[in-house]
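Action item from last week, closing it out:
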Amino acid sequence: LLTQHVLAQNSSISLDEHLWNYAQEQEKKCTGVERFPEQIEILQSIEVEKQIKMLLDIGKNVRKYRKQILRLSEIYQKGDARLLYQLTKKSSGKLRKLMLYERNKIMADRITEFTNESSIFAAVGEAHLAGEK
């Protein structure tokens, strides 16, 4: 929510939302490659103390957080998936396995499942596109 708020000041609608709306206008079947319960399970597996610390760190220096988010947004707009992946990987620290690798596995399995049924268009966050995993 914090990231959405920061980015909303620079853009009226996210790319994800734009693609979703466009697909619905085209009367395409829309679904997610991650399920809400899976996302909640991932978040619940992060210690509450760690989550509080992360929020407090953002709260202590909102300007720095905004600058980081805008930098990532610029890298995204340039299409530099490798750099975005490296920065995300570095900043996620011990949460890297949980937030990137395990979610990549879930999404890849789900995309495979969907492609067995029909052709699809799948959108995922750019940080999930680079790297070996």
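Closing note: The chain has seven helices and no strands.
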